[in-house]
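Researcher: Go.
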Amino acid sequence: RLQEIRAERTELRRDLSGIRSRVHDVSAEIRNIQRQREVSASLLRELNFQMSETERKIEETTGELLRTQDELAQKKALLDRRLRDIYKRGPVMTEEVLLTASSFADLLNRYKYLYLVAQRDRRLVADVGELNRQLQLREQELRRSFTDLQYLQNERAQEHAELGNMAQARSSTLST
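Model: Structure:
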């Protein structure tokens, strides 16, 4: 949408140059300047809309980032506690646990317990890795959104200056 508005403004500027080079038609020049102002106002509205959408996206991403950080902190604490428990217990050999079973049912229960604990630990480590990856992605997205917002703010400031120039051109044309 911004590109379409800019193309229209460029076309109007070209028309204005053509009008000025031909017979000096003040009313056509004023109409052209007025149309440029309308296009610039439309451009400003579009920039404001995009800025508000970018700000909304920044707020949303910031919320997701904070939630991800909280979840990561919880998972890391759980992983740290699990590692501490493993360290306190000392080296336990799987074979030792299985061979000290008193019956076949006890052996199956121990095997199932070891399997479930190992599976849970793997899932916990994978969750921490995934949360770290999501955190990095959210931070990159946030940086990109801030860059977009700064670009839009600069663009809006330039457009305000352009509007001021057009108002000055209109008044000088009218006074001439």
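Model: The mean pLDDT is 84.
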